[in-house]
Amino acid sequence: MRVTVDQDKCCGAGSCVLSAPDVFDQRDEDGIVVLLDARPRAELHEAVREAAAVCPAAAIALEEATERV
Amino acid sequence: MTTAPHTDPATTSAPFAVPATRAPGCPFDPAPAVDRARQEAPVTRATLWDGSPVWLVTRHQDVRAVLGDPRFSADANRPGFPFLTAGARVLAEDTTFSFIRKDDPEHARLRRMLTADFMIKKVEAMRPQVQEITDDLLDRMTDGRTSADLVTEFALPLPSLVICLLLGVPYEDHAFFQERSRVLLTLRSTPDEVRTSQNELLDYLTRLAAKKRKEPDDGIISRLVARGELSDEAIAGMGRLLLIAGHETTANMTALGTLALLRNPSQLELLRTEPSLIKGAVEELLRYLTIIHNGVPRTATEDVTVGGTTVRAGEGVLCTLNAANRDEAVFPGGDALDVTRDARLHVAFGFGIHQCLGQPLARIEMQIALETLLRRLPDLHLAIPFEEVPFRHDMGIYGVHALPVGW
User: Fold this and answer.
1) What residues make up the domain containing B399?
2) N or C: which terminus of chain B carries fewer CB neighbours within 10 A?
3) What topology is assigned to A2-63 in CATH?
4) Nearest by CB to B360, which of A14, A27, A56?
């Protein structure tokens, strides 16, 4: 999984930090999202998906790895 | 033989008036007309207080789509904006600097002056202080007594004290700003009444901003003054928004949440025996009760298809958060309160760039208030018949006007 954030879109609601605090933080000066880990380990993926789903500003994009068959 | 086409009143898309009325005996549920619209005609026509038409958007996915779409404007000065009441137009006048009724980039410019104050780590650090205020209020409420009005003695003062601390507003003025706030949120208030109360509140906060210019402190108002980017009038406008949003919402959720738990004893018992459920329980109460109960207004700036229906440029929509939060597609069995449910996709704080700025603070206030209340008052009960509880059908923010309880 690859995570990207768009700080221009972010409205600082903080939902991502509640969902996945190991992956997202907020900038001290204005509360805007800071990405801590662009390639989170597998056990965090569910929390990161939730963070993307609850983000009100669509500021989190996920690229899921394609499974090999 | 020909007959007139039959229209079943249950399925007709004939416009109904909003705010719609709740069913008697179902004070926690959305109005039946809105609930029916969600199931049968999710984007439907309704009429506002002045007879003007508005689209009602009721399903969870459509509400998120509209509120997350920049083609829907929150700018109250745009022609066609659907005002919920006669007085609502006054609340959004330019002089109020109310960024909830502005679009980006102006909205973002103003909002970003405040986001740091409500970010998770800042708010989490306030837990001990909020706990202390909570304990102190309960000490006073229970001192030598076995009953009280939970609204005036606990649910309202708790968030009022906290937002006053944050803003740097003297709490001893609470009767003044709570009364003005009540007028602003009363659906039946006339535009003149709203304007008078609003001006009094703005004058008060403008004077306070001017005072902070001379005697700075650590509060938000003082720090907005120190930035040097806003006039005292603009700071007063921002302060008005924070002051009202900061105390009315949490106060009502706390009292109504307590009542919902008292009416669902098995859920209350679950929460008492397993206090670690509190965070999820607060999300579920937010979902189930959705106190912003009359819909969030937007105007389409171009033709947009929502849930299969074309909303034309210039038409108004109301996103009914309470109906969306009962959407079975997202919350199966959603008409029941279930504190073990994963309710985190609820839209009780709205959605999109205008989603509640203070939600981290609201969450910790509610978590601490409810956990402490249930722990310290194991025999908490309603002190009047449920049928006599005065619900806030007449207000922009739902809840109860009073909640007499015993313990």
Assistant:
1) 21-149+254-406
2) N
3) Alpha-Beta Plaits (3.30.70)
4) A14
Residue with tokens 């609340």: B91
Q: What is the ipTM of this complex?
A: 0.93
| Chain B residue with the nearest C-alpha to that of A17 | B120
Q: Which residues contact B85 (CB under 8 A, 6 or more apart)?
A: B49, B187, B188, B189, B396
CATH number at residue B66: 1.10.630.10
With cut-offs at 50, 70 and 90, classify the pLDDT of residue A67: low
Does residue B21 register a pLDDT over 90? yes
A14, B68: Cβ pair inside 8 Å? Answer: no
Q: Cβ contact (<8 Å) for A12 and B118?
A: yes
Q: What is the pLDDT of residues B61-90, one digit of tens each?
A: 999 999 999 999 999 999 999 999 999 988
Interchain CB contact of A57 with B (< 8 Å): yes
Whether B142 is in a domain gets the answer yes
* Beta strand pairing call for B43-47 and B16-17: parallel
CB contact under 8 A, B120 and A26: yes
Residue with tokens 């008697």: B24
Q: A20: nearest CA in chain B?
A: B120
pLDDT higher than 90, residue A50: yes
- What lies within 8 Å, CB to CB, of B323 at 6+ separation is B30, B34, B35, B37, B38, B58, B59
**Is the pLDDT score of B16 beyond 90?**
no
% pLDDT > 90, chain A: 91
Q: Which residues pair with B316 in a beta bridge?
A: B299
| Shortest CA distance from A29: residue in chain B | B116
Inform me whether the C-beta atom of residue A31 falls under 8 Å from chain B C-beta atoms.
yes
Q: Is B84 within 8 Å of B331 (Cβ atoms)?
A: no
- In this prediction, residues B311-327 reach a mean pLDDT of 98
pLDDT in tens, A19-39: 999 999 999 999 999 999 999
